[in-house]
Amino acid sequence: MEGTRSSTGRDDLLRRIRDFTRSVVEDLGEGRFPLITIDRFRNYCTSPDFNCSCISDKPKGQEILTLQRKSHVYRIDVLLRVLLIVQQLLQENRHGSKRDIYYMHPSVFSAQSVVDRAINDICILLGCSRHNLNVVPVGKGLVMGWLRFMEAGRKVDCIKSPNADHPIPVLVEEVKDIVSVGQYILIVEKESVFHRLANDQFCKENRCIVITGKGYPDIPTRRFLRLLVEKLHLPVYCLVDCDPYGFDILTTYRFGSMQMAYDTKFLRVPEIHWLGMFPSDSEKYDIPQQCLRRLTAEDKRRTEAMLCRCYLSREVPNWRLELEKMLQRGVKFEIEALSGHSLSYLSNVYITSKIQGRAYM
């Protein structure tokens, strides 16, 4: 489903690992300092003229690691240790999590972020996606609605009980035979909102598929969403809090994250429409004043930084205008603020009116 990078085979990866390690050993054996060149990617820049091509999957520069620099020695050591673990996973056709890898050498790795960076570097060096390395995250996403699929030979039938939650598959490449009679896909930022919709029998009343990544979405959630969009060709709407974090989650679904910029092409879902919450919704839907909170200094700093992202002006200028409006008004509010009208207001009024009235961006 995801082109050359995602379909990289195990044998090919093992060959690339052997070639890489052989070159490092040969350099050391001949008295040379090995040079490890890592391409650098980005999915946006902050250029004031927005004259860029950051959505391209081409590298935007390189970083060269060498044993001649003390600051690089530790990083190379970690990279080689993690690469050895990855090689073992591939050879034995087993899967492990990033946390598993960390606990194999906790005194050396010192922090999970050290392992995460090494895994990203290895993906770039080998030209593959993270799941190709048999490194899998602990899945956290949920799905419900009018959907049925096979996962590793097991049928997952959400249609039988469309308001029951099912975990999103961690090994998305094993998902086959996707069938749906849904009319659209709805992404909600938070698990609490997901369960609110389930309690309201939202999917029974509305033929749709609902997904949550429980905040910032993990890779399986983003890959699963992308797979559904590619296979089902349904409209996709995203509902997030009206605050900087909600907006950042929205852009992660649509444009990808900077940390995984090397894989953005295979993780982003550009078809997403922003359903809400908009700053203007506080007036349009008469949200009580006590539900509005002032933006903190950190909120303002984060919002100002996001306003500089080139893809907002280039691809979704109306999103950028709403973000500016949030900053100008200086207030934020959560999806649950709609419960001030009634517990079912979100399900019975807000979402349906937004979609039917095409009041999305």
Automatic annotation (TrEMBL):
<dbReference type="InterPro" id="IPR034136">
    <property type="entry name" value="TOPRIM_Topo6A/Spo11"/>
</dbReference>
<feature type="active site" description="O-(5'-phospho-DNA)-tyrosine intermediate">
    <location>
        <position position="103"/>
    </location>
</feature>
<protein>
    <recommendedName>
        <fullName>DNA topoisomerase (ATP-hydrolyzing)</fullName>
        <ecNumber>5.6.2.2</ecNumber>
    </recommendedName>
</protein>
<dbReference type="GO" id="GO:0003918">
    <property type="term" value="F:DNA topoisomerase type II (double strand cut, ATP-hydrolyzing) activity"/>
</dbReference>
<dbReference type="GO" id="GO:0005524">
    <property type="term" value="F:ATP binding"/>
</dbReference>
<keyword id="KW-0479">Metal-binding</keyword>
<dbReference type="InterPro" id="IPR036078">
    <property type="entry name" value="Spo11/TopoVI_A_sf"/>
</dbReference>
<feature type="domain" description="Topoisomerase 6 subunit A/Spo11 TOPRIM">
    <location>
        <begin position="184"/>
        <end position="355"/>
    </location>
</feature>
<keyword id="KW-0539">Nucleus</keyword>
<keyword id="KW-0460">Magnesium</keyword>
<dbReference type="InterPro" id="IPR036388">
    <property type="entry name" value="WH-like_DNA-bd_sf"/>
</dbReference>
<dbReference type="GO" id="GO:0000228">
    <property type="term" value="C:nuclear chromosome"/>
</dbReference>
<dbReference type="GO" id="GO:0042138">
    <property type="term" value="P:meiotic DNA double-strand break formation"/>
</dbReference>
<dbReference type="Pfam" id="PF21180">
    <property type="entry name" value="TOP6A-Spo11_Toprim"/>
</dbReference>
<keyword id="KW-0799">Topoisomerase</keyword>
<dbReference type="GO" id="GO:0003677">
    <property type="term" value="F:DNA binding"/>
</dbReference>
<comment type="similarity">
    <text>Belongs to the TOP6A family.</text>
</comment>
<dbReference type="GO" id="GO:0000706">
    <property type="term" value="P:meiotic DNA double-strand break processing"/>
</dbReference>
<dbReference type="InterPro" id="IPR013049">
    <property type="entry name" value="Spo11/TopoVI_A_N"/>
</dbReference>
<keyword id="KW-0413">Isomerase</keyword>
<dbReference type="InterPro" id="IPR002815">
    <property type="entry name" value="Spo11/TopoVI_A"/>
</dbReference>
<dbReference type="GO" id="GO:0007131">
    <property type="term" value="P:reciprocal meiotic recombination"/>
</dbReference>
<dbReference type="InterPro" id="IPR013048">
    <property type="entry name" value="Meiotic_Spo11"/>
</dbReference>
<dbReference type="Pfam" id="PF04406">
    <property type="entry name" value="TP6A_N"/>
</dbReference>
<feature type="domain" description="Spo11/DNA topoisomerase VI subunit A N-terminal">
    <location>
        <begin position="75"/>
        <end position="135"/>
    </location>
</feature>
<keyword id="KW-0238">DNA-binding</keyword>
<dbReference type="GO" id="GO:0046872">
    <property type="term" value="F:metal ion binding"/>
</dbReference>
